Q: What sequence folds into this?
């Protein structure tokens, strides 16, 4: 197992936008990125920094695939060649943020409602790099809100099954400009879970959730990351042993 990333030997972390920016800068210095031809890009505020920092020459030399419409539009605005994920069966590297990272490098993702496509791209990639600031490092993922994506037809059934598991699930509501639930780019409804009372391990929680008919995917990324990059005065890069499936 990897060493505890919560206790990186560094006291120079930077929170917020500056930490995110420095993590993004470090990701662009990875050999896995420099040598890549097809690059997957995730969704969220940290990724927004990443897109703004990609050198112009990379948009001429590399092809990109985005986990969301928002990211695709941002990449296109900078002149990137963006392919639809359905046209690819493998990508060289996938770079994305995370809502939480535990001491073993497991993740909670889905704050941007793109978790299903993000997990597909992470699975397709030869190398998955996660960029975060220190605020995303946690002792346990159970104490973070865990999103799942649900087929709309199964929503009421899934909510009942969650109650039977003694989990509290809440349909995520859209913000300004739209009434009703948040709907992903894959047309799933996002449900946020409070799993703080869950008594078993996080892997068992992921397994049980995925076994509910109607759950498209969970925001738990267990053993999927190849590297965690934490932004600071000097970004700290921890490479992990990824579980290949």
A:
């Amino acid at each position: 197992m990897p060493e505890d990333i919560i206790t990186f030997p560094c006291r120079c972390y930077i929170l917020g936008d500056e930490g995110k920016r420095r993590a993004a800068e470090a990701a662009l210095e990875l050999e896995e990125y420099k040598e890549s031809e097809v690059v997957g890009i995730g969704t969220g505020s940290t990724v927004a920094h990443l897109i703004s920092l990609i050198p112009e020459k990379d948009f001429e030399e590399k092809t990109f695939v985005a986990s969301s419409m928002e990211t695709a539009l941002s990449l296109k605005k900078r002149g990137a060649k963006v392919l639809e994920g359905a046209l690819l069966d493998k990508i060289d590297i996938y770079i994305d943020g995370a809502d939480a990272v535990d001491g073993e490098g497991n993740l909670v993702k889905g704050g941007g409602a793109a978790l299903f496509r993000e997990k597909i791209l992470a699975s397709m990639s030869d190398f998955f790099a996660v960029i975060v600031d220190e605020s995303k490092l946690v002792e346990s993922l159970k104490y973070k809100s865990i999103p799942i994506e649900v087929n709309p037809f199964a929503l009421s059934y899934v909510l009942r099954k969650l109650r039977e598991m003694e989990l509290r699930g809440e349909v995520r509501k859209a913000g300004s400009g739209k009434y009703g639930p948040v709907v992903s780019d894959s047309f799933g409804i996002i449900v946020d879970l409070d799993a703080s009372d869950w008594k078993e391990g996080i892997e068992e929680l992921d397994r049980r959730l995925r076994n509910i008919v109607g759950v498209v995917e969970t925001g738990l990324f267990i053993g999927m990351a190849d590297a965690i990059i934490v932004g600071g005065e000097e970004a700290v890069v921890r490479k992990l042993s990824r579980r290949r499936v």
